[in-house]
Structure formats: C-alpha cells, structure tokens
Amino acid sequence: MFDTSELVINMGPQHPSTHGVLRVVLRLDGERVVGADVVIGYLHRGIEKLCEHRDWLQIVLITDRMDYVAAASNNLGYVETVEKLMSLEVPPRARYIRTILAELQRIASHCLWLGTHAMDLGAMTVFLYAFRERELILDLFEDYCGARLTYNAMRIGGLPLDIPPRWDEKVRAFCDILDTKVYEYEELLTRNRIFLERTRGVGVIGGDEAIAIGLSGPALRGSGVPRDVRKDEPYAAYADFEFNVPIGMAGDTYDRYLVRIEEFRQSTRIIRQALDGLPAGPILGKVPRLIKPPAGETYHAIESPKGEIGYFIVSDGKSNVPYRFRVRPPSFCNLQALPRLIQGHLVADVVALIGSIDIVLGEVDR
Amino acid sequence: MPEPTRTIAPPAGPPDPPPAPEIAVPSFIATLHERLPGAVPRVSYWVGDWTLILESPRLLDVAHYLRDAPDARFNFLSDVTASDWPVRAKRFDVIYTLYSIPLRHRVRLKIHVADGEGVPTVSGIWPSANWLEREVFDLFGVRFEGHPDLRRILMPDDWQGHPQRKDYPLEGPGELLLEGPMEWLRLRKTDIE
Amino acid sequence: MLEAVVFYVLAAFILGFGVLVITARNTVHSVLFLVANFLCVAVLYVVLAAEFLAVIQVLVYAGGIVVLYLFVVMLVNLRAVPEARLDPRRQSRLGFLLTTALLVEVIAIMVYSANRPGAVSTLAPTADVPVSGNTEVVGWLLYTDYLIPFEVASVLLLVAMIGAILLARKEA
Amino acid sequence: MIDTYVVPTLKILVLLNAVLVAVTYMVLLERKIIAWVQVRLGPMRVGPHGVLQPIADAIKLLLKEDITPARADRLVFTLAPIVSMVPALIAFAVIPFDSEITLFGYTLSLYVADVNVGLLYIVATTSISVYGIILAGYASNSKFPLLAGLRASAQLISYEVAVSMMLVSMVVTAGTLSMVGIVESQREAGVWFVFIQPVAFVILFIGGLAETNRAPFDLPEAEQELTGGFHTEYSGMRFALFFLAEYANMIVVSAVATTLFLGGWLRPFPGAGALAFLDFVPGWIWFLMKTFAFLYVFIWIRATLPRYRYDQLMRLGWKVLIPVAIANLIVTAFIRVLL
Hints:
The complex is a heterotetramer. Chain B is of the alpha/beta class. Chain B is 22% helix and 23% strand. Chain B contains four helices and seven strands; from the N terminus they run αββαββββαβα. Chain B has helices spanning 27-35, 59-68, 129-140, 181-192; strands at residues 42-46, 49-54, 76-84, 92-100, 105-113, 118-120, 143-145. The radius of gyration of chain B is 19 Å and the shape is globular. Chain C is built from seven helices and no strands. In chain C, helix 2 (27-47) runs antiparallel to helix 3 (51-75). Chain C has helices at residues 2-23, 27-47, 51-75, 83-86, 92-115, 134-143, 147-171. Chain D is mostly helical. Helices cover 67% and strands 3% of the residues of chain D. Chain D has a two-stranded antiparallel ribbon. Chain D has helices at residues 2-37, 53-63, 74-90, 118-139, 143-174, 179-189, 193-196, 198-211, 223-226, 236-261, 283-304, 310-338, and strands spanning 98-103, 106-110. At the A-D interface, strand 1, helix 4, helix 5, helix 7 and helix 14 of A face helix 5, helix 9, helix 11 and helix 12 of D.
C-alpha cells in the first residue's frame, strides 16, 4: 500500500551508549532491528605490532592500554604467559597478591559495567553509586602502585612492589563496604519491574550457541555454561581458594546481570581468603637480569572481567623483543555475538545488549 | 633510550619441538592419528602446549573431527591468529587455538600458508572464527576461502597493505596512503552517501 | 463593529490558510497550514461565545486528527512527487463534478436560509432548553434534537474503527 | 476599564514572569535533588550553593551559536520550539492559585481567567504541544530526531486518551469543567478528590509523566538510545525553549493534579472543623506546597527508575491505563446516577 523502506541508522562511532567508538549500522523496520553490521577499528592503535618492537618488560605497560578499565588483569595475563614460556617459578606471596589485585580489578570493572549498563537503560543513580565504589578501588590501587588507571602493576616473575603497610586492612574494610553496597544496587535493579521488563527475554542465547559464537566470561556463564578459567585452568593462586562460579539459566540480559552481581560477592570472598592466607616471603622469583625466553611459542589464558583473555607469544630466542605478540581479546570475541543478539529486537534493546556483553573498545580494537 | 631493534637475521620459523618420549600423548591425538591417518604429519609439545601441524587441505577434516570426536570435543575456538616468517617459502603460520569446555583441555592447530594462498575457513565449524579470520585477513592478508564476510575489520576499508606483516614498517605506510588522495576522498564520500 | 472586524480578519485568515493547504508544495507544510486553519476556526468560535466548541475544535481536530495526518505524512516517502501532480488531468472530471455539487449545495443552503431567516437556530438558552451554559446546551441539544444524527455518526465511527482493525489484522 | 483590561494584563505579566523564573529554578531544583539522591552536591559554583546557576545557564544558552542544519526545513525548524513552549505557558491562564486575596484593599482573584471549560482548555493546549516535538523531529532532517518524533506522537496521543478518559470521570464527579468550580466542589464534598477517585489519581500521575516525557517514559529524548531524541540538532536558545517547555509542562501537570485531586488552595480535609487552625496558611501557599510535592515525586522517579521500552510503553498505555480509565468512568457514572 505504501512504499515502506528500511531505515538505516548509524549508531556511533559518536553515540552516548556505544561505550566508546563502536559503530553499529542498524537496518530498522520501524523500531525493530532487521539487520546490524558492527564496525570497529576506530581505536586501533596497533598494539600487537607495537609490542613486537618493545622489549619484554616494556610490554607490561602497553598491555595496560588495552582493557583500560581492567589493566591489572591484562598485566597478569601477559606476565604469566612469559613466565610459562620461560618456565619461571613465581613465589607464593606474589601469586596471592596478584590474585587480590586481579579480583579487585574484576570488581572495579564490574562496577563500571553495572553503572553504564544501568545508565543505558535510563537508571542513572546506579551509575553514580557504582562509581562511588569503583573510586575506593582506584584509591586502593593508588596506595599500592601510585597509579589509578594504568597500573603497570606486575613484573615477569613476580611483582615490582610489596603491599604497603596496613593495605590489607583497607582492602578488608573495602570488602565489607562492597558487600553492603551490592545490596544497594540490587535494591534499585534486581526486582525493579521496569528493569525486569527491559532485560528479561532480551538477547536470549543458549549455551551451545554461545560457545559456538565465541562468548566467554560472564556473557557465556549467563547462558548456563559453567566455564571459568579460574576454575578450569587455575592460574595465580586460584587453586587455593574456595569460590563458586555463578551461572544463569535463561541466557538473557537479566541473567548476565545476575551473574555479574554474584561475581561481586565471589570476588570479595576470594579476596578475604587470599588476605587470610597471605604467605610471607619474597615477591620476585629468580629472574635473569636479561629477559630472553627460549625460542618457542605458547598460549596462555586467564579470566579477565570481560572473559577469557589469552596471549599467544612467539619468541625467537635471539632478540630481546617477542617475535609475535597476539592477544585474544575477550571484548572482541564477545562483540561478535552482538548482531546475533540484537536481531529482531528494538532500538532500545541494542543499547541494553551492548551494555550486557560488556565491551571496552580499547581492547576490541587494540 | 634507543629503541630495541632487530639486528639479527630473521628466523625461519618456530622450533616446534616434537614431544619428549617420556611425555604421555593425549588420547585424542592417538585416536586422531588412527581415524585420519596422515592428516597430521607433525605433533609438537612445548611448555605444556600441544600443537598439531598439518597441511591446509586437511584442515577442515581435522577440525570437524576435533569438534565432534567424543574424546576431543573441542567446541570452543579460543583464537585464530597468524605469524609471519618472511624468509620461508610458505611464510605464514595460521594458528587455531582450541579449547574443550566439557573436557577442559587445549590444543593448537597450525598450518603453513604461502602468500596469496587460500585457506579453507573454519567459520562453518566454529562461527566464532568469523571475526577472528577477518582480523587475520586484515592484518596479514591471508585469504580464507568460503568465508561469509571477508572484509577488513580493524583497518579502514580502503587501507593498502597488511600491517602485521614483518615487512610492513612500524611507523605505517608513509606515502602509500597519499598516493591517490582524490581517489581516497572519493571513496570516503561514497561511503557517506 | 469590532466583532465584524474580527470576523472578517479571521475569515480572511481561514480562507488564506485554506488556500495554502492545497497549494503548499511540501506536504508537511500543508498539514501545518491545516492546523493554523483549525486554530483560526477555534478563535472564531470563541468570538461567537461558543467556548466549548472552540476547545473541542482544538482538542479533536488540531490536537488529535491532524497529528495522525502528520504521522502518516512523515512515514510515507515525502521526496517522491505525488502522482496527482505528475498528471494534472488525472481524475479531474470527478473532481469537477464533486466541486460543482458542493457549490450548488452551498448556494442552495444560502438561498434557502435567506428566505427563511427564522430557521437558523441559535444556541442561546431558550424556553425549550432548560439548562444554561455553553457545554450544557450543546449536550442538551445533542441528546434531544440531534439525537439521531449523533447516533448515526457514532455508528459510522464504530464501523470505521472495526474496518481499520480488520485491515490492520489482515496485514499482520 | 481597570477591571477588564489593566488587571488581567498585569496578572498575565506577573504570572508569565513567575512561571519562567519557576521553570528555570525547576532545573536547578531537579539537579540538586538528583544530586542529593546520588550522594553528590550538584551545582555549587555559581552563587552560594549554586543558586545563580539558572541565570548563568540562561546567559550561556542565549550567547551560544544557534545552528540550523544545512538540509533542515528552516521554517518548521524555527517554529517547533515556539510551538512547544507557547501551549505550556498559556495553559497557566486557567490554573487557580487561590480564590481571592485582598491586596492593598483591593480584592483580587489569583487566576487569570475562570473559563467554564477550563479543564478542556488545558487538555487542548497540551494536545497542541505535541506538535513541537513532532515538527522538531521532522524538520531536523536527521534520523534520530525523526525516530523520536514518531515515538513522541504515538506516545502522547496514546496517553492523552487515558488521561482524557480519566478527566471525564473527574468532571462527572465534580459536575463542572471549570477549574475553580472543581476546587469549590471539593470544598463542598469536604475531602480532596484523591480520596474519592484514587484510581483516576494514579492514572493522571502516570499519564502526566508520559505526557511530559519524563522518566520512565522519556523515550522521545532518550539520550542513551536516540542521542537526545528530537532536540539532537538544536542548540542555543531554541534548545533552551524545548528544555523550558518540558519543565513548564511538568509544572502544569502538577498544578492540574493539585487542582483536581488535592483540593487546589484548600487545606487538608476542608470539611473537618478540627483542622481549622490550619487556615492561617494562605491558600496559594497550600497550592504551591502541593504542586512542589508533585514536582518532587517527578524528580525522585527520574532519579530512581530505568526507562521503559517503546512497545512496553504502548502496552501499558493501551492495555492497562485506557481500560482502567474506561472502567473507572463507567463506575463513576453509575455511582453518580445512583446517588
């Protein structure tokens, strides 16, 4: 009857809720999404190429710049990969402190996710509440290493710094605060009728499909797959601690939300155990003065707040730079599921889903 | 501080050492040899990682087998990447990192590819290979045959060259981009229209 | 005197906007002139001390129906020239017939009412309307003298509504 | 002469200025309240506790460059903010702030006009303000505003149906369309109408939120989805007009709700003689207090709730509010006839 045509709109790269410079080209039928093309690369800085021209120690601070809201997790993944390549032994105290830092980082990253996700749905108060707690973590990191965002907090074979005096008490106090604040977040969202309507049944993906499309981290666990690198391939000191891996049932946005909320609690649980059992001893293992791993290649993955972050590093054994440096960025692989998830949903769900898979463009584009 | 640069002659490839005799070979590799004889000519073991080195024509067979075999069940494709060894005739290694969520083990597949040679896509087996292969295509110029959507992903669509190759300068292409500025502008404009 | 001046000014505006509605090249502008037209008519009602009608005019026509017009106009492709513009003679015969019929009708009514000046009823409260006040009188008349036209109109609207629902369902 | 021309003109001038000042300070109030909800301070720099912030904002917006997009429909683009602002302001004409006060020995009614179709007049003006948003969406010649314009027209028309239905049941209850008359009939009834018509009150409140584009129904300007919605392409004073119109509409809705349900200028329980000591508070103070209570709830909701999605909004409007409003009307009519 009428000449109806699809409306193509360009969401991003400058858009308030694409979390950076993501560009999504949406084909709309009314408000319904009939097709989506995700365009990335606006923040491509060639980090992999750059790392092939920096020596092994300098790379630690470049990894900070990938997932810049979870710099410590990136550091951890890199140094552990090099340690694996060199078969280095890391002292237990260093492994425990690394675990604490990684878990604090997970909480900080989840705080940022929670704030922006809720903001995308229009609940703006949660944003400031979550950032209030994130600020406390940044203070803890500042106490530890002096930096608030890009920490450069790890060394190959251990840590550059021991924890400052009374730092563990501050961390404990923070864990107590966070446990009460998580209830505050839940108060505002978990049983909020509007939040439920906006998230339940939105972006449903089943477990098998989620695995096939390469989701990892909380996004995969929300679909009911109990996959967590911390449990399955324990690294740092995770094998020593008791914690649960929360999984969802329905695989929708709401379950992914619940999984991350539960991870707040599990993280404080891990941190408390690590502080209780913090061994004495050196923080840096026996590391050669000149780091030059033997020729060979390896892949090592850890559980970053976004999912499985893996490093594939090739050493030629002769030069003081890696021959090939490759990151398996969880945000990149998770983002791949976005066109599948938003198919058939409304424009308003697109922002909910971008928030739900929790991406950082610094890591997607590298 | 002077930038550390490569002064030594470029290596001709990773050592890919075979497993020491005392290392127990995982059962799925043994059955793989049995079921697809000759598909995997070399097996390598290094710091705990198993790597199967094969030729690209057999890639899909092996990939299918590894995904579906009951003792392998590699249902999760962690990563697809490549490395560039310019002195070699088949200069690229394309590396697939597989993980089995039910059985919790890993393996890597590796194929050698010459410049311009096509590689069969595994995106039909693991949909997650879609973007990962696009990235390898973008940064290395390895073509994936049968890929549903082989476009550049990180670099602009009109970019020339493949930045992750070893013969590509760190500082970028220099005047390459400015070769035809009008052409470039025209491309941009049609993109907007 | 003042009333007459206001009336003729308003009438000029109403006619002017009416002409603009059919001459504007841009469909959205055309709809906007229609709104302006309706607003002027509402003012005319106020001048005639019929506030209820004025407000209803704004509420129903300007605020309701034309919004839907605008909705439709915005949804269909505006850049394409309407077919009628491409071929001016298209359906001109039918249009001519309709306009003539309308004109004849208007003239007939004018002649008829000029001959019988008492036939034009006023809304002022009379002996047979036991209520006072603008709204009340309108209500009274609607439910007494004009009950049958009123009911017929509502049945017509009901039919139109059912038809619209049927059409919408068929597409879904 | 004085009574027919000078006094109404003065009233209009005073009211218009008061409303504009109130609207600018609404913005500050909203920022402050939301800041307190979110454990922040809000504006603090301009004047003590930021009280001069609205003036600084106004100057900034006046001095900003006024951009018209190259391919916009210039006439409509200029018209749209005016069309959204004017109805919001003229609606105040029939709002009774108090019945009569004595000022310098002169008895003065605190409303501009007591039109006998006052309630319908307000509905009519708000129905006109839809045009501002639709036209802004259309005239910007940009996709996000267009989507917002479509959302806005559908949303406002839908909720207007429910609100109008509810207003009809209020008219049946009060027996008049005049705003002053409605307050007077509450005095006669002895209680505020909120106790007689609680369902209608809830519907008016929800519908009011939706008609003023406030959270959780702020879809036409959802910045997270539509980058600001219909005013994406606006800047400077034209943007300010949209902004002010939204707040003016909020005040109108609050004032109407106060008049209809909270007894306008009447004290609580006007029928209860025991509370007569409350009469020392002037009526217009009561009115303002009630209006501000409404505004506070508006802001509070914005700070707390996420946003509805378009289809959910429509479902709420058509499948919940309208049926409930119709049922309420039928019940009200029956009770009115039987009693």
